[in-house]
Design a protein that fits this description.
Length: 225
């Protein structure tokens, strides 16, 4: 089945360009277009979207609010949101990750990067590989309340085993399951099991939220380069 993509952007010209690009791929299709966040949430449910390409700045209900609404709706638990932003350095991006987005991508990205992002999000992974994303998360968490720690988050980490904490640290470093497996000398399947258990215990939708939790809890200290 092709990946069902919903486009949410208040600029019709951009939506048209994204539609042509996405529909040109045999493994994905555009199932709807929204010009604001409220419409995006409605269409995500009606059209059974797998991935929403969400502009963060839209009139009315913006992309941040829409992402929170999608994340909070059990009926949309399968939907993955990829935030599209004109500004790669934007504190709204971190807020979106906290709200449940799977990652972000600059609107100036190459077509292949956009298509790859859709496939990564649809596969349940997080768009955390680029160094810019990790440094962005660290930068804004570092400039948050105090040192960015959330005591409540820290207490929730008590539910993790030593190995799950160890894996979480590696996930926060942007490593893939294969890379973590090689570093810890275990199988990728074992890593995946630990990641899934950590997500369940911490109430995280995906790896992106695991990274934010790792920073907010103080398990990983923000580093601004």
């Amino acid at each position: 089945m092709p990946i069902r993509v919903l486009l949410a952007d208040d600029q019709a010209l951009l939506r048209s360009a994204f539609r042509v690009l996405v529909d040109s791929e045999p493994d994905m299709e555009v199932v709807g277009e929204a010009s604001d966040g409220e419409e995006a949430v409605r269409l995500a449910k009606e059209e059974r979207a797998d991935v929403v390409l969400m502009d963060i700045r839209m009139p009315g209900t913006d992309g941040l609010a829409a992402t929170r609404m999608i994340s909070a709706d059990p009926a949309l638990a399968h939907v993955r949101v990829v935030i599209l932003t004109t500004f790669e350095v934007d504190d709204y991006v971190v807020q979106s990750l906290r709200a449940g987005a799977s990652g972000f991508l600059g609107k100036g990205s190459e077509p292949d990067e956009l298509l790859a992002a859709i496939r990564v999000a649809a596969g349940g992974e997080a768009l955390l590989s680029p160094a810019a994303t990790k440094s962005l998360i660290a930068r804004f968490l570092a400039h948050g309340d105090g040192d960015g720690r959330d005591p409540a988050r820290g207490e929730r980490l008590d539910a993790l085993t030593v190995r799950e904490r160890e894996v979480l640290v590696q996930v926060a470093g942007g490593l893939s399951n294969d890379e973590i497996a090689e570093r810890l000398e275990v199988s990728p399947l074992t890593v995946k099991t630990h990641v899934n258990r950590a997500m369940s215990k911490l109430g995280a939708r995906d790896r992106a939220q695991l990274v934010v939790i790792a920073y907010e809890s103080g398990l990983v200290r923000p580093r601004v380069e």
